[in-house]
Structure formats: C-alpha cells, structure tokens
Write a structure and sequence with these properties.
The chain is of the alpha+beta class. The protein has one domain: Fusion Protein Consisting Of Minor Coat Protein, Glycine Rich Linker, Tola, And A His Tag, Chain: A, Domain 2, CATH 3.30.1150. Helix content is 33%, strand content 28%. It contains 4 helices and 4 strands, in the order βααββαβα. A 4-stranded antiparallel beta sheet has the order 1-4-2-3, covered by helices on one side. β2 and β3 form a beta hairpin. α2 packs across α3.
C-alpha cells in the first residue's frame, strides 16, 4: 500500500464576473472594496484543504448576498474529478458567511482551487520500497 501526503492549494485570484465592473466599483471607495475582497480571500484561506492524488483545478463561481452569505454557487469549470469539484464547492460554502459587501461591490466572484500531487519525503520513500 502506498502512503502519500496529499496537499491542495488555492490559487487566490478572485475574479470579477460581471460586465461593467469598473463602473459598479466606482460607487464604493477603493479601500472598502479592497477590504471586502481581502476578507473573502482570508476566509477561503482559513478553510482546510481537500486532499487528492490528482493534479487538477476547479473554477468555482459564487455570488455573495447583502448579508455576506452565498446566494448562489456552481462549478464554472470542472476539474474533471467529481470528488474534487464537490470538495471545492464545500470549501467555498464552509468559508461563508463573508463580510457584507460594500455598496457598489461586484458580488459575483470566482476562485480557482487547484490540487497538486504530493511531494514524497524520506519517510514515505522507505514505505514505498517495502
């Protein structure tokens, strides 16, 4: 039996999905917008990472409601692995609720969640030789 340490990394690039974003964002001060997006990223970063032995990424799109809860969520681009897609959805759902978005903020966001193959340490190599 092979023992592997598995890890998963988030690619912290929140994407704004709505057309006309620049116009909508001008309604709120830049500091408020930055604080909101940073708080969303911090909440996502604090969630435990799912572990998989495949190298793949899922793009999760979600909409944040006025109170910071998730209004809608879906897999915008599948990783090709249903368990990874489900784990990515759960990661975002578990990070909510987020801080309430400031007026004029784009609430349609997306994040790429990427799984990576593990790096084997010396202890794991010894087990593989058996």
């Amino acid at each position: 039996m092979h023992f592997r340490s598995l890890c998963c990394a988030l690619i912290f690039m929140l994407s704004l999905l709505q057309p006309g974003t620049a116009q909508a964002q001008s309604e709120a001060p830049a500091d408020d917008l930055n604080a909101f997006y940073q708080s969303v990223m911090a909440a996502l970063a604090s969630e435990p990472r799912p572990s998989f032995s495949i190298e793949a990424e899922a793009l999760i799109a979600f909409t944040v409601s006025d109170d910071g809860s998730i209004e809608s969520i879906n897999v915008a681009r599948s990783s090709g692995s249903n368990p990874l897609d489900v784990a990515a959805l759960e990661l975002v759902q578990n990070a909510a609720p987020f801080a309430p978005p400031p007026e004029g903020a784009n609430r349609n966001l997306s994040i790429t969640i990427k799984s990576t193959r593990p790096v084997l340490g010396f202890g794991n190599l010894d087990r593989l030789r058996q």
